[in-house]
Design brief:
The chain is an alpha+beta fold. The chain has helices at about 15-25, 55-70, 105-115, 150-165, and strands spanning about 5-10, 30-40, 45-50, 75-80, 90-100, 120-130, 135-145, 170-175. Helix 1 packs antiparallel against helix 2 (about 55-70). The relative contact order is 0.17.
């Protein structure tokens, strides 16, 4: 039976660092189930979910800190269970939003969905300068919707919240 491990790594971005990590995972006999990579400033950040036998997961748990020390990476690992799809989650909302960047904008969105007991399954945000010197926030997120969520009410409430914080948004339901 497969076991699962969440792995994170953070360090200075440089060519070949991802290859070193994926090589270690392969040599330990694990499979990469899901992964995200991002560069923040000059820092490489990686988040992965691995699967494998008890022994292969244990090999990663022992080997990754050694690789991290060798390449000046901060690493963290945590065992988890496989992705379990809740039976009442059949739809997702995809939200994209943009507006003048300022402190608290992302908090407005995360709080909006938390207050409705909705799980955010992905979030990507980026501040981008415009030609005028202003900075625009570009936000994309996916939210899980249970069967009892009224999508038209949710969309209207989201539009009202976005208007109150001067952000334009697009709300789309995926079944």
């Amino acid at each position: 039976m497969d076991q699962y491990l969440v792995l994170t790594a953070l360090g200075r971005n440089r060519p070949g660092i991802l290859s070193k990590i994926t090589q270690l995972i392969t040599e330990c006999g694990c499979n990469i189930e899901d992964s995200r990579l991002a560069i923040f400033g000059s820092e490489f950040t990686l988040l992965m979910m691995l699967s494998g036998s008890h022994n292969s997961i244990a090999r990663v748990e022992v080997s990754l800190p050694l690789l991290g020390a060798e390449h000046d990476l901060l690493t963290m690992i945590k065992r988890t269970i496989g992705q379990q799809q809740e039976k009442n989650i059949r739809r997702w909302a995809e939200i994209s939003a943009s507006g003048p960047d300022k402190p608290g904008l992302i908090d407005n969105f995360t709080r909006f969905f938390a207050q409705r007991d909705l799980n955010i399954s992905s979030l990507s945000a980026r501040s981008e300068p415009e030609g005028t010197g202003a900075v625009q926030l570009q936000l994309q997120m996916t939210v899980e919707l249970s069967d009892d969520v009224d999508e038209s009410t949710l969309g209207a409430d989201l539009a009202k919240m976005c208007e109150s914080i001067s952000v334009s948004s697009h709300f789309h339901i995926v079944s």
